[in-house]
Amino acid sequence: MMKHNDTQPIIDPVCGMDLSEFKDLKTVTHAKTKRFFCGSFCKGRYEKAPERYEGEPLMKLSNIWKVFDTGTIKTEVLKGLHLHVWEGDFTVIVGPSGSGKSTTLNMVGLLDRPSSGKIYLKGKDITELDDDRRAELRSRTFGFVFQQYNLIPWLTAEENALLPLVFSTAKANEKMLKHFFGEMVLKDRMEHRPSELSGGEQQRIALLRALVNDPAILLGDEPTGNLDSITGGKILDILIDLHKVHKKTLLIVTHDLNIAKKADQVISFKDGRLVRNGTVHEKLR
Ligand SMILES: Nc1ncnc2c1ncn2[C@@H]1O[C@H](COP(=O)(O)OP(=O)(O)OP(=O)(O)O)[C@@H](O)[C@H]1O
Ligand SMILES: [Mg+2]
Predict the structure, then answer these.
(1) Residues whose CB falls within 8 Å of the CB of residue 207, separated by 6 or more in sequence, listed in order
(2) Nearest-CA neighbor of 81 among 117, 57, 36, 110?
(3) Which has fewest Cβ within 10 Å: 72, 74, 113, 196?
(4) Ligand 1: distance of its center to the CA of 1 in Å?
(5) Domain residue limits, the chain
(6) How far are the Cα atoms of 54, 124, 174, 210 from residue 60, in angstroms, in the given order?
(7) What is the SS3 assignment for 263?
(8) What is the rounded distance in angstroms from the CA atom of residue 209 to the CA atom of residue 163?
(9) Are 226 and 148 in contact (CB under 8 A)?
(10) Is 77 touching ligand 1 by the criterion CB < 6 Å?
(11) If you take atom 25 of ligand 1, which residue's CA is the nearest one?
């Protein structure tokens, strides 16, 4: 059953993890307030920029429960999840199959609604927005890249990449698009249909499509999962460029250690919540 805790949880201000059940926590006192941390990595980040982490995260998930009800079986997938995503951060989510990573991305990207809990964007509660407002916010704020490229087979590469503009009032960031069209070395493939493209080329088109609305946040679910390591490396290079040069916020679910190594923060999931894990819930460098 759902548990709702009436007492204030103890939240790691950096990753957002609920620390209420732990005793041996690292602490920092800032502006006369004692803050608790899941481990030395989050503590270290906080100490470098306490004002940042006392502000509002770009996205905050607070006590999120997600129960899938098939009529006969109820599956609790997210069980009181707390998570912070900071503007401009490259955050990687790792965790075992079934731990709720994709479900969480769907919550963050407003593709699904939580059973209970709150979702904040820049401090504003967006949990209860109606479907139209959600759709508008989604198309303005998020770009999505999935393991399956999900390109439309009868459209050309270029038409696929530009598709979001058909559904949105958002304007393309022409300069950035030109840069990425060049960067992805796909100029001579833009008239091809997806079936005439390699997996890596299809994924680059999917990335272009995700970027066409110039979203603040790029969400990726195993974006290199179907690619060999060299092709995956090209996708990673683009992600790094997006993060470093274009200052995008990236939230990427991946098993790919090469990606995790480049992240500002690695969050590990287990059983529908963040877990404290000295080796992975940290930067892997
Ligand atoms: N629509 C649904 N109805 C019922 N159960 C669901 C639904 N979507 C997901 N689940 C269940 O929720 C659990 C978490 O799924 P989720 O896809 O979030 O896991 P994941 O961490 O992304 O796993 P993987 O690494 O395999 O992609 C799984 O046990 C899955 O079966
Ligand atoms: Mg998944």
Answers:
(1) 145, 180, 184, 223, 235, 238
(2) 117
(3) 72
(4) 18
(5) 26-274
(6) 13, 9, 30, 22
(7) coil
(8) 7
(9) yes
(10) yes
(11) 97
- What are the beta bridge partners of residue 30? 33
Please report, in tens digits, the pLDDT of each residue of the chain (285 residues total): 445 455 788 999 999 999 998 888 999 999 999 999 999 999 999 999 999 999 999 999 999 999 999 889 999 999 999 999 999 999 999 999 999 999 999 999 999 999 999 999 999 999 999 999 999 999 889 999 988 888 999 999 888 988 887 776 666 666 766 677 676 666 778 889 999 998 888 988 898 888 888 899 999 999 998 888 888 888 898 889 889 988 999 999 998 888 999 999 999 999 999 998 655 555 554
CA 255 to centroid of ligand 2, rounded, Å = 10
**CA-derived radius of gyration, the chain:** 19
Ligand 1 center to residue 49 CA distance, Å?
A: 35
The model's pTM is 0.91
Where helices occur in the chain by DSSP H, the ranges are 40-48, 50-54, 101-108, 131-141, 157-167, 174-183, 199-211, 229-244, 257-262
The residue to mutate among 67, 69, 74, 103, having the most atoms of ligand 1 within 8 angstroms of its beta carbon, is: 103
Return the ligand number nearest the Cα of 93.
1
> Hey, what CATH topology would domain 26-274 get?
Rossmann fold (3.40.50)
| Whether the CB of 100 sits within 6 Å of ligand 1 | yes
User: Which residues have C-beta within 8 Å of that of residue 46, sequence separation ≥ 6?
Assistant: 13, 14, 28, 30, 35, 37, 53
Question: Which residues have C-beta within 8 Å of that of residue 172, sequence separation ≥ 6?
Answer: 162, 165, 212, 213, 214
CA of 191 to the centre of ligand 2 (A): 31
142 with 219: CB under 8 angstroms? yes
C-alpha–C-alpha distance, residues 263 and 97, integer Å: 21
Ligand nearest to the CA of 221: 2
